[in-house]
Amino acid sequence: MTAGAEPSFRMLHEDEHMCAVVKPNRLLVHRTDIDFHEPYNLRDLLNKTRNQDAWLQPVHRLDKPTSGIVLFATSRKSLNALKLEFVHRRISKTYFAVVRGWTEDRGVVEKPLPTAHNSTPKEAQTHYLTLARVELPHPVGPYETARYSLVECRPVTGRFHQIRRHFRHLRHPIVGDSKYGDKKHNRFVANQTKADSLLLHAGKLKIGHPDGKRTLNLEARVPHGWNAILDGWPWKGDLSTVPLKDAVTL
Predict the structure, then answer these.
(1) Quick check: pTM over 0.90?
(2) 216 near 208, Cβ under 8 Å?
């Protein structure tokens, strides 16, 4: 995203009940009291492409630095139906991340986390699967080589910064995370690949359609900045589940 330029987004799916949009890094889903100074947000940009009198509300959120799929409802009835899918955990959300170090083959993080508005920790659970690992012959910090893992994450709950906090808890922070990450590795990857954003992408989402008759399966390709990492590094593993193109099935 060029400084000062209006951010762009991609429409994955649109019908009378809802729309699914791919949010870029560094864009808010909607304006908040904390970030009121931000010139752009996804909901306003989306509304510019629609009837300005249309009712449009986000069903869920993504962190500002996270890219990926965001759902919007076009009516209160649709919003309630979609939110119930989240409340009853009938959805499947899959994120992809590049993290520091070599993670276990698979695991579950169950560290309770506070919400955005309540400091009391609540249940939080994230499943992950390591897709591939790489070791680069470059010293970063006290080590002679730099190791990274490409992981597939499936959060069961949706706490504030959940995936980012859970991987910090594992001591495998996500690359490009300025808040919870490793600054030395962030700088190294940015210098090597020009990928200077958070490498966390909400790439797949499966949810019951608000009409009650269909299941919506969505895939959003990873951002362009991932290409140098996926193609240029000698990964050992299976990258086939990483979405490299947009897809929608009903």
Answers:
(1) yes
(2) yes
pLDDT digits (tens, 9 = 90+) for 154-192: 999 999 999 999 999 999 999 999 999 999 999 999 999
Task: Tally the C-alpha atoms within 13 A of residue 235's C-alpha that lie toward its C-beta.
Answer: 19
Residue 92: both structure tokens together: 């499947």
**Interior CA angle at 219 toward 213 and 225, to 5°?**
160
Largest CA distance in the chain: 58
- Say whether 238 is catalytic: no
Nearest to 69 by CA among 178, 207, 231: 207
Structural domains in the chain, CATH included, are: 10-249 (3.30.2350.10)
- Tell me 122's DSSP state: B
212 token code pair:
């009650």
Q: Which range, of 33-42, 83-92, 134-143, averages the lowest pLDDT?
A: 33-42
**Other beta carbons within 10 Å of 126:** 24
For CA atoms 23, 48, 3, 36, give the dihedral sign: negative
198: its two tokens = 């958070």
Strand, coil or helix: what is 1?
A: coil
Instruction: Report the alpha-carbon distance of residue 167 to residue 153 in Å, rounded.
Output: 10
**Bridge partners (DSSP) listed for residue 140:** 143
What is the C-alpha to C-alpha distance for residues 205 and 154, in angstroms, rounded to an integer? 10
Interior angle at CA 42, CA 50 and CA 91, nearest 5: 100
DSSP 8-state symbol, 169? H
Give CA–CA dist 59/77, Å, rounded: 12
**Catalytic pick among 35, 63, 105, 246:** 63
Kindly report the number of other CB atoms within 10 A of residue 40's CB atom.
14
